[in-house]
Write a structure and sequence with these properties.
mainly alpha; 11 helices; 4 strands
């Protein structure tokens, strides 16, 4: 799985986990099995009911239309997912992580004919491997990619910090945050410190103190460190 980072217009770093080739192939195979199962069940009922469809092209068009539009419909109405993608925890998103417009889904679906159908997936595989952002040709044209939503959490990505047994908290207001929010705060704080980005630290400290409705006395770095320690104390120690 490749990780890639982008900068938004607001200079906010967003890291995406591009779905791996194996995950995308498995998701596609699951969707393909569903399409095949649809045809088998449909033909079975036609046989059981002894329907005389003859050369009624309209009937066969109606039967074949759902599989033909399968990926477009699922991704459009299920927020970039198909049953196969859901089973593999994958999703189609724009490169900035937002939800694509219908035009994005439509473009990548139209180019699926070239990417996957005509080339048996060969062009898509080559493009994904060499692009590095999980994009096949359809994604490049639509400005989309497929990401993995599987969480691989390391210690430094959790809310956990080391505090002594006799630790004295200062800000009970930290409990206004959820674990997810605090994990994001910790991630931004650590990245900013690692990169020496003091402006981000200052903005983050102002945002956090504003949400807590307090006026910190410490400098931004010390304040954010204290917030992390206090949150750990109130949620883990009590």
């Amino acid at each position: 799985m490749d990780n890639f980072q982008i900068e938004t217009a607001q200079n906010v770093s967003i890291q995406q986990n591009a779905a791996g080739i194996g995950e995308r192939i498995l998701a596609y195979l699951i969707d393909l099995l569903i399409i095949i199962a649809y045809f088998i069940v449909t033909l079975f009922f036609i046989g059981v009911l002894d329907l005389d469809v003859g050369d009624q092209w309209a009937f066969w068009l109606m039967i074949g239309l759902p599989p033909f539009l399968y990926f477009l419909l699922w991704e459009t109405f299920w927020n970039g997912r198909t049953p196969g993608k859901v089973s593999m925890k994958l999703r189609v998103v724009r490169l900035d992580g937002s939800r694509p417009a219908f035009s994005g889904y439509l473009i990548r679906w139209l180019l699926r004919l070239l990417d996957i159908t005509l080339a048996s997936g060969g062009i898509a595989v080559v493009a994904i491997l060499f692009k590095g952002t999980g994009q096949r040709l359809g994604d490049m044209a639509a400005g989309t990619t497929v990401i993995s939503e599987k969480q691989k959490v390391k210690f430094h990505q959790t809310i956990l910090v080391d505090i002594p047994d006799d630790y004295m908290p200062l800000y009970p207001q930290v409990t206004v945050f959820s674990d997810v929010e605090m994990r994001k705060i910790k991630g931004i704080y650590q990245d900013a410190r690692r990169n020496g980005n003091h402006n981000i630290i200052l903005q983050l400290a102002n945002k956090v103190s504003g949400l807590m409705e307090i006026t910190p006395q410490e400098k931004p770095v010390q304040f954010l460190s204290k917030v992390l320690e206090d949150y750990n104390y109130y949620t883990q120690k009590l």
